[in-house]
Write a structure and sequence with these properties.
The protein folds into 2 domains: 112 residues, Immunoglobulin-like (Sandwich), CATH 2.60.40; 275 residues, Methylamine Dehydrogenase, Chain H (7 Propeller). The chain is an all-beta fold. Strand 1 and strand 2 form a beta hairpin.
Length: 395
C-alpha cells in the first residue's frame, strides 16, 4: 500500500485495499449466429490490479439506450454473452470484476452493440386444420416439417384458441410480411376472407419490423418508420379505428404517430409500447385488461398510467404483464386462476406489482389453447398456435 494511503499509520478513510481497484477494459461487443438471436457477446480484458485476491467472476451489463432496461450475465472469463435483448435496439455495455472482497467499479461504457435476430428456416407440426401449419395442406403432422425451403424468416406471431382462427404471420429479413391459415374477419391482411395453407405476402411493402397475433382474431404491426398498424376483427375497438366492432381485411394505420416501438395482442386486446417508455392499450376491457383504471372498451389507444419506465409488454388471455426498467414486473386484467400472481383470483384494472423483486428481465403472457403440444428451444423460440407448433432454427 502506498505511503500516501496512510494517515498517521492508519489506513485513509474510505480506502479498502482488498477490493479490486481497477475496472476491466471493454473490448469488442458483437453479435453472431453462433451465440444466437437477441444476444451480444462482450469481450474485455482483466483489470491490471486485482486487489487483495484473484478475480472470481465478471458481470456484464447491457443497457438499452432507448428504454434504459438492463440485462445482466455473469461469467468467469471473456467474452460474456448477454441474452434476452431486443432486435434493432442499441445497447451500452459495461463489465465489472469481483474478488472475495467485493466488486470493482464498472468499465468505461461501449455504445457500439445493436442486437439482431438471425434468420433461419421455418418448421411446423401439430394440427394442420385450416392450413394453419403453412405446409400447403390441412394435414396433421406429429414431427417437424419444414415450411418451404427459404432461410430468411426472422420474426413470427402465431395465434388461435377456443374456436378462434388458427393462423400465423412471419416477417422476413427483407422486411416483407407473410400470413397463412384461417382468415375469419380478414385477419390475414390479404383484403379478403380466403383461407391460405401456404405463406402469402401481405401487400408489397418491405418495411415491417414488429408483428403480433391477437389469438388468431386480429393482428398488429409496427413499421420501420415507427407507425402502428392493425387489421382483422375489431371487436371492442381492438383495431383503434374509432369504432367498436369494425373489421378490416387489410392493414389500417392506428393514428398518425411515428414513435411506436413494439406491440402485443390477445383476443380483443391490443397493447403497444412507445419509444418514450409509455404503454398504450385499446380494445375490450371487461376485466380491466386495458389497465387504464376502468372497464370501458376503448377504440383508440389510451395510456396506462403516466409512467415512462416500461421496457417490455405481453398480452395474455384477458390480462397483460409488463416489465419496468427497474426490473419489476406488473400485471393487470383478469385474475382467473391466479395469473396475476397476487395471491388471489381478483381482477385489477390498473397495474399491480408482482412481488417485490427487481431482478426480472423478460415477460410473456400465455393465451389459453385447446391443446398444448411440446415446447422446445432451438436458435429461435417456439410459438404456440392453437393445436399446432411453429418454430425457427438457424439457417
Amino acid at each position: 500500500m502506498p505511503i500516501s494511503d496512510r494517515i498517521g499509520g492508519f489506513i485513509k478513510p474510505g480506502y479498502f485495499p482488498l477490493k479490486i481497484p481497477d475496472a476491466p477494459t471493454i473490448g469488442t461487443a458483437s453479435t453472431s449466429e453462433a451465440i444466437g438471436s437477441n444476444a451480444i457477446s462482450i469481450a474485455f480484458t482483466a483489470p491490471s490490479n486485482v486487489g487483495g485476491g484473484a478475480i472470481t467472476s465478471y458481470e456484464a451489463v447491457a443497457t438499452d439506450t432507448v428504454t434504459a432496461a438492463t440485462f445482466t450475465e455473469t461469467g468467469s472469463s471473456t467474452p460474456i454473452v448477454v441474452t434476452g435483448l431486443s432486435a434493432g435496439q442499441t445497447y451500452t455495455v459495461t463489465v465489472s470484476a469481483t474478488n472475495a472482497y467485493g466488486s470493482s467499479v464498472a468499465s468505461a461504457a461501449s455504445n457500439s452493440a445493436t442486437a439482431v435476430v438471425f434468420p433461419g428456416t421455418l418448421w411446423a407440426w401439430g394440427d394442420g386444420n385450416y392450413g394453419a401449419l403453412g405446409l400447403g395442406n390441412t394435414t396433421d403432422y406429429s414431427s417437424p416439417v419444414q415450411v418451404g425451403a427459404l432461410t430468411n424468416w426472422e420474426l413470427m406471431a402465431v395465434g388461435g384458441a377456443y374456436g378462434s382462427s388458427p393462423n400465423s404471420a412471419c416477417v422476413k429479413t427483407d422486411g416483407t410480411l407473410w400470413t397463412w391459415g384461417r382468415n375469419n374477419d380478414g385477419c390475414l391482411g390479404q383484403g379478403n376472407l380466403t383461407q391460405y395453407s401456404s405463406p402469402v405476402q401481405v401487400g408489397a411493402l418491405t418495411t415491417w419490423s414488429k408483428i403480433a397475433n391477437g389469438a388468431g382474431r386480429h393482428m398488429l404491426a409496427v413499421k420501420t418508420d415507427g407507425t402502428y398498424w392493425a387489421w382483422g376483427r375489431g371487436y371492442g375497438g381492438a383495431l383503434g379505428q374509432g369504432g367498436l366492432n369494425e373489421s378490416y381485411s387489410s392493414p389500417v394505420q392506428v393514428g398518425a404517430l411515428t414513435d411506436w416501438l413494439d406491440v402485443s395482442a390477445s383476443y380483443s386486446l391490443s397493447l403497444a409500447l412507445k419509444t418514450d417508455g409509455t404503454i398504450w392499450a385499446m380494445g375490450s376491457n371487461n376485466y380491466g385488461q386495458l389497465g387504464d383504471g376502468t372497464t370501458d372498451n376503448k377504440s383508440s389507444p389510451v395510456q396506462i398510467g403516466a409512467l415512462t419506465t416500461w421496457s417490455a409488454i405481453s398480452a395474455g388471455g384477458w390480462w397483460a404483464v409488463a416489465l419496468k426498467t427497474d426490473g419489476t414486473i406488473w400485471g393487470w386484467g383478469a385474475g382467473n386462476d391466479g395469473c396475476l400472481a397476487q395471491g388471489n383470483t381478483t381482477s385489477y384494472s390498473s397495474p399491480v406489482q408482482v412481488g417485490a423483486l427487481t431482478t426480472w428481465s423478460a415477460v410473456a403472457g400465455g393465451i389459453p389453447v385447446m391443446e398444448l403440444t411440446v415446447i422446445v428451444w432451438l436458435l429461435k423460440p417456439i410459438t404456440l398456435c392453437g393445436r399446432g407448433v411453429l418454430t425457427m432454427r438457424g439457417s
